[in-house]
Amino acid sequence: MSFDSLGLSEKVLTAVAAAGYREPTPIQSGAIPHVLERRDVLGIAQTGTGKTASFVLPMLTLLERGRARARMPRTLILEPTRELAAQVEENFSRYGVNHKLTVALLIGGVSFDEQDRKLGRGADVLIATPGRLLDHQERGKLLMQGVEILVIDEADRMLDMGFIPDIERICKLIPFTRQTLFFSATMPPEIQRLADKFLQNPIKVEVARPASTAETVTQKLIGSGGEQHEKRAVLRQLVRSAVNLKNAIIFCNRKRDVATVFHSLERHGFSVGALHGDMDQHARTATLDSFRKGNLTLLVASDVAARGLDIPDVSHVFNFDVPHHAEDYVHRIGRTGRAGRSGEAVTIVSSSDQKSLAAIEKLIGNAIPWSEPLPETGEEEGEPRRRSGGDRRRKGERPEGRSDRAEGQGNRRRDRGESRRHAEPVEAIVDAEEAPPPPRAPRAPRPERERPKAEPVSQAAPERNRRRRDPEDRDPPVIGLGDHVPAFLLRPVRLRKTKIDDLAETLDEEAEAS
Ligand code: AMP
């Protein structure tokens, strides 16, 4: 099938040809003709399938007639994250080069004023995250009565992020006569309920089994002890021993682990950036751009921040944690092996992950094989290695493990034009934290689905190794003055005998006598 047969306008077809697309992807050929017929569409498709163009291209065609009025956008696209919203805006710029449409992006983390001005001029297309959209609406700067087309993208992620009440509020503000396009990678019952509520007699277009993983991705598991520092050591080994590693996304379950893993890798000399929901927009965009351009080799990210990001050609995905939601596994590894390229996804597994791993294997319908033992990387205690796939240390930089590390980090960030905000501050960095853990033998593949057991931290490890900045493995709380007892307090003190002592002695003697 060709794009010509879908009913798109000449202007759009010219832009599509300029983008180099030869034929529509299945979600595009399935959805575009129905969108152009003004039907509601329920699209079940993951990112990477060409889903964005499946609504952007017909919207551009439909928007050629009519024009926007001040504060009354004609179309609204809701996205769960700022990055996705920005990505959709890029799609409008790319495919809308031959149109003179006004596109406004309403996302958090940037000033209201510029957004206000754009709304004031009249927007043909409004792309927004739910919270910021409602903020504008509550300020009385946005009227939703003119919205003809509503797109709810990544609905399952909206659900995960708790946006559904906001979406329901927004839907009530938009005329009932609107056309609604609803996209989700998975269709759990809550999402089905929403689809039933928001859509009228929709055309359902499903392009892949929700749980399917691309065949171009090689998946593996690697065992680790459950301690954070053990997992970080395994991660470093994985990165260093990865074959043909061009770039990699490292996923963590929690924001604070994103920060810790990022700092750890940075201090071990890797070229690394971090992406999570708490970063300001400027920092997120800068990090993402650096990664896209190849200036950063590794990107540590949380699920929310990385969901749906279109980063073509990621060679590796490392799951620092087994995701709690099985669907997240599918999304994570979908970052690699895109557009028919091959990719590798390796998941670090400790004994506490068995339940989550079983859920993933059930969802994807097969067992993920265990990796071959990793080659020794020869990492020496106390000093991060220098030469590696992701190594970026420059000449003249001082080695790790020094006491003025914070200053050195600042220098490195300035060196590469990153702001301090770029990597958000974390718990105070303790020198000894990153001294590599006692060496562990690489694990052999487990032929019979044996799960790794959590290993205790070696008692032989030097004292400094036990000092962690991780909340999980923090030192026991210091009681009183801790080790720092002034000498005068340690002098022996002669105590005067009191009446109570006399009484105690008498009682003791009586007890002995009886
Ligand atoms: P999406 O699923 O919207 O994130 O798109 C994933 C990638 O596919 C993007 O980089 C698009 O530029 C690309 N793409 C979209 N449509 C096509 C097409 N018909 N042919 C080739 N690439 C496409």
Description:
- Residues 237-382 form the Helicase C-terminal domain.
- A motif (Q motif) lies at residues 1-29.
- It comes from Segnochrobactrum spirostomi.
- By secondary structure, the protein is an alpha/beta fold.
- It folds into 2 domains: 3-206, P-loop containing nucleotide triphosphate hydrolases (Rossmann fold); 217-380, P-loop containing nucleotide triphosphate hydrolases (Rossmann fold), CATH 3.40.50.300.
- The protein has 18 helices and 13 strands.
- It has helices spanning 10-19, 26-36, 51-63, 82-95, 112-121, 130-138, 155-160, 164-173, 189-198, 228-241, 255-267, 281-293, 303-306, 326-333, 354-364, 405-415, 487-490, 499-513, and strands spanning 41-44, 75-78, 103-106, 125-128, 149-152, 179-184, 203-206, 217-223, 248-252, 272-275, 298-302, 316-319, 343-349.
- The strands form 2 sheets. The chain has a 7-stranded parallel beta sheet, with helices on both faces. Strands 8-13-12-9-11-10 form a 6-stranded parallel beta sheet, sandwiched between helices.
- Helix 14 links the parallel strand 12 and strand 13 (343-349).
- Residues 21, 24-25, 28, 47-53, 310, 312 line the site of adenosine monophosphate (AMP).
- The site of adenosine monophosphate has 13 residues, from helix 3.
